[in-house]
Description:
Helix content is 24%, strand content 34%. The chain is of the alpha+beta class. The protein has two domains: 2-224, P-loop containing nucleotide triphosphate hydrolases (Rossmann fold), CATH 3.40.50.300; 232-364, CATH 2.40.50.100. Residues 2-230 form the ABC transporter domain.
Amino acid sequence: MLSVKHITKRYGTQSVLRGIALDVAQGEFISLLGPSGCGKTTLLRILCGIETPDSGSIHLRGQDITALEASQRRFGVVFQSYALFPNLSVAANVAYGLQGMKRAQQHSRALEMLDLVGLADQAHKYPSQLSGGQQQRVALARALAPQPPLLLLDEPLSALDAQVRVSLRGEIRRLQKQLGITTLMVTHDQDEALSMSDRVVVMHKGQIEQTGTPQQLYSRPASEFVAGFVGKMNLMPALVVGRNRARVGTQDLHCDIEAFKTGSPLLLGLRPEAIGLRPFVVDAEPGPSASLNSLRAEVLETVFLGPCTLLRLHCEALGGLIIEAELPSSDDATLPVWLQGQVLMELPAMSIRGLAQPLSTLRAA
């Protein structure tokens, strides 16, 4: 439905976008995720026609629209700042983009869209009389009213309170599915991207670092950057010493590294919630279930986070690395007595991923 081909953009000597290529299917919800300055908003502005690329092209249903002005593309755009007209009523704001219709049709369509976002009873009010969440719903209704081929969302929830953001996430996704409208959203919030998107495009320094479903990005990040930006991940410099076996510090670990050759350096990644903990018994004989991935560690700190508790663990065998683990909170939110001092740390082999890209930490080592 939408094809972005090798888009580049520079401001003076600064390269903002470098060869961006992306295909979007009809009805997809795609998030452009990345930190400030990665180029995601510039890409969105190029898509809606506000900015012009230095090279590359944009095709909508096979038609080259690169040279078309924003008004000719007729995309729906929702900005972070709402951009509502303060002197117009809510209904008039929604009807503003419906030029060419008779006034009665405009009003009818505006009320239809306000009903869709749950604000039909607020049609007579002015933006200043609404909450931030309600204003953003009006902005969304206005963008959808002309039935655009593409909806572009530029950090639509970042100006809202946390509780309102969570509620509006589900509402935007429900509307997008109900209308079947192809949507691209810019966000720096990983929770928004993971919970709302069919696919997530992670951007870093003007390039696409990885594209995939939320599940793919979380379970199999392709680089150190993605591993650190999407969720939390323990990163461990290692050396491949055999088939699905790598050495970290002085310890060999079984891990999921089928594609890596023996003798090659790599970075291992392990999510905190995948780690198991059990009591450490001094002088106990190793049981039949003992493995390379069962290691002694010292609990340095525990941090209560509500649904879970974060533990920071020092493991001498892993070269003195600090490993973070997360345990679900108990009904009374207390920790077992044995979770202090020495514990046994279980690192599940199938949860330890090898990150494919060359890493600065390994080159430095």
